[in-house]
Amino acid sequence: MQIVIVLYDRVTALDAIGPYEVLSRMPGAEVVFAAVEAGTVRTDVGSLGLVADVALAAVPSPDVVLVPGGPGQMEQMEDGPLHAWLRAADATSTWTTSVCTGSLILAAAGLLRGRRATSHWLALEQLTGRGAEPAHERVVFDGKYVTAAGVSAGIDMALTLAGRIAGDEVAQTIQLGIEYDPQPPYAAGSAQSAPPHLVERLREASRFVLNG
Amino acid sequence: MQIVIVLYDRVTALDAIGPYEVLSRMPGAEVVFAAVEAGTVRTDVGSLGLVADVALAAVPSPDVVLVPGGPGQMEQMEDGPLHAWLRAADATSTWTTSVCTGSLILAAAGLLRGRRATSHWLALEQLTGRGAEPAHERVVFDGKYVTAAGVSAGIDMALTLAGRIAGDEVAQTIQLGIEYDPQPPYAAGSAQSAPPHLVERLREASRFVLNG
Questions:
Q1: What are the extents of the domains in chain A?
Q2: How does residue B211 score in pLDDT terms, banded at 50, 70 and 90?
Q3: Among A18, A151, B44, B101, which is least packed, fewest CB within 10 Å?
């Protein structure tokens, strides 16, 4: 089973690495990091280089497509080689998936029309303009389309998907292997649970980026 | 504030990327990925290349040292350039930290003598032989030494550390930004919660690796 994780400059690292850490542990899984051109991409904050080992053209028919999000998503919204690859790969994929604002790229490529989908909480409403139906949930399955909310939600999405692909026991064993027994030190992970003034402050700070 | 994340071959990606995603978002933080020699390392499963932009020698005095774990930890237990760098960096660090079996490397370098520390649940007892006191907790603070349990625990550790360094509101805003509102599809993330036969199966499968 081939899983292609799409990379591009200013991707959010955890969007890609959370699902990678889960899905790569399924028996028989081959995870390939690919970009329009092979080479190193840089993530959105600071100094992390992630290697896209191959060009997307070299992996035309993955079983699972995964598109992570991040600020660089905004440069991936126009039709072009990435969208063309996504449409072609989607035609034969078993699962087409995204994390965070990766769903906006899938939607821009025309793959989520009429589909329920999620995204980062600050970007969720943008799905509407692209023909998808925003669902305020952490992980959304609609047929073969699976979308996750912001950044860390990719871990929950991947475990759920691993269960569908390989069965509950495989997914549970992966969860145990990565000791995913989360104990966040704060209850601040959603706009509902975080202190309201912090939600408003982040919404304001993100307005320029998200509308850019 | 300079944060150095140490890379080596067969590191577990999420051990490094979880804390990176959190700590890099603190105002004023500079995260540097470094290895004994600069260049690309390959992670433990599948095909991910992570770039160590600089050699450890180029960053001798970070404020925060972070050592991730992974199967490659076993090749990092002998005294040598990494241990020498860790001891020197620790002499001036504000925080010396690890995720998963990274704590075994810190212990092997002599930095956890008499300290309470945690590690991956399958490796926890190995801390004893290196002079540390194993603590079956997800995140352990002992003075400036901060250790996290397996893989995904690095996210919880980093949020807790971000709170200590930059204050609760900064840490909560980061948690909200990465939408860390975990909803695992299974209750299988610890040896206490997972189905017992899966715990035993994973323990058996890991025995060779961990004792190797």
A1: 2-183
A2: very low
A3: B44
